[in-house]
Amino acid sequence: MQRATITVAAGRPDPTPDAPLNVPVEFASALVAGGDVGYTRHDAGNSRAFEQVLGALEGGHAVLFASGMAAITAVLDVLAPASVARPPVFYSGTRAVLDARSHIRQVVCEPDAWIDADADLRWIESPTNPDLRVIDITAASSRDTPTVVDSTFATPIAQRPLALGAEVVVHSVSKYLSGHSDLILGAAVCRDPELAARLRDHRELTGAIAGPMEAWLALRGMRTLDVRFRRAADNARVLAERLSGHAGVQKVIWPGLANHPDHAVATRQMDVIGPMLSAIPTGGESAAQAISESTRLWTHATSLGGVESTLERRRRHRFESPLVDPGLLRLSVGIEDVEDLWADLRQALEAAGSSR
Ligand SMILES: Cc1ncc(COP(=O)(O)O)c(C=O)c1O
């Protein structure tokens, strides 16, 4: 089945007269004895339904966690690497987790240096947050070393890292997969069922299972992933092109643009170039801050991947990498009408220009 069909058709109960079409939300802790589960910290029906859909989309065995960070720490704990190859700039939370594990040697890899990386785990994020570099997953996974790909910005609609050679895919389900900025969840998807079982054990013992309401909402959001992601990506293309021609913008970073350093890899590897877009205004940091505070339709907010468009200057966070330009605005393009999005961005760019 095609991915658009899987998002709709997988993870449903067998059709039974007068029964619901979807797995209903199941509020429970203790379960009646005699079954395989017994207690919902071990496993839960709403998590399982979501895992069936994500596992089918990624082509592996999915484990749902209470957050993206819970999934990431579980993968690092279970694989227990002594050294990790990672991009120069990637999600600040993952970098903080690696930094806190001082016994792990970090090897910083530029996009073209992954093949020869000397480390016992490769931690790829593609596209990277927030500078949108695209890493060649096939080339990076060509050695015996296990490769993990944080595919949050791509979703399985744009790329399927397990099919490209990775062992594990991780997601912040809080973003596109759920899609409505209303929950925190994460997931890991493994090629090896044995590794997925070890992650389940880790989840059980660290208490990182998803609540039933979040799991149910995430699956409800996932049903529309394909249409949401594609529509937002179409909007991003239009905005990237228009921003590129605007005098108030010095740099637009979107892998679908021919001048992006990884454009060739992105078009080869990704079925859709996603909706995340970064831009640096001509006026730098102060203009970026002014723009993020003067939009009316775009919300000034962190996070990403919701139906609503949001933007922020990433370096406003003290934990963001100093390698990120202080004027970089990260835009999470939503599914609104693109003309309304452009009109609002243009008025904010003009307001920032006149305040300089
Ligand atoms: C690329 C990426 N990975 C992981 C995470 C962490 O996910 P969560 O916030 O769901 O714990 C984030 C959050 O912003 C992210 O952007």
Folded structure, characterized:
This protein has 2 domains: 3-222, Type I PLP-dependent aspartate aminotransferase-like (Major domain) (Aspartate Aminotransferase, domain 2), CATH 3.40.640; 226-354, Aspartate Aminotransferase, domain 1 (Alpha-Beta Complex). 37% of the residues lie in helices and 15% in strands. The chain contains 12 helices and 12 strands. Strand 4 (121-125), helix 5 (137-140) and strand 5 form a beta-alpha-beta unit. Helix 1 (3-9) packs antiparallel against helix 2 and helix 2 (45-58) packs parallel to helix 8 (212-222). It is globular. The structure holds pyridoxal-5'-phosphate. Pyridoxal-5'-phosphate binds next to helix 3.
Features:
356 residues, alpha/beta, Aspartate Aminotransferase, domain 2, seven-stranded mixed β-sheet, 12 helices, 12 strands
Summarize the biggest pleated sheet.
7 strands, mixed
Biggest β-sheet: strands ordered side by side in the sheet: 1-7-6-5-4-2-3
- How many discrete domains? 2
Helix fraction by DSSP (H/I, runs of at least 4): 25-40%
Mean pLDDT: 97
- As a whole number of angstroms, the C-alpha radius of gyration is 20 Å
CATH C-level class of the largest domain:
Alpha Beta
CATH H-level homologous superfamily name of the largest domain: Type I PLP-dependent aspartate aminotransferase-like (Major domain)
Cofactors, ions and other ligands in the entry: pyridoxal-5'-phosphate
- CATH fold label of the largest domain: Aspartate Aminotransferase, domain 2
Given as residue ranges, the uncertain stretches (5+ residues, pLDDT < 50) are: none
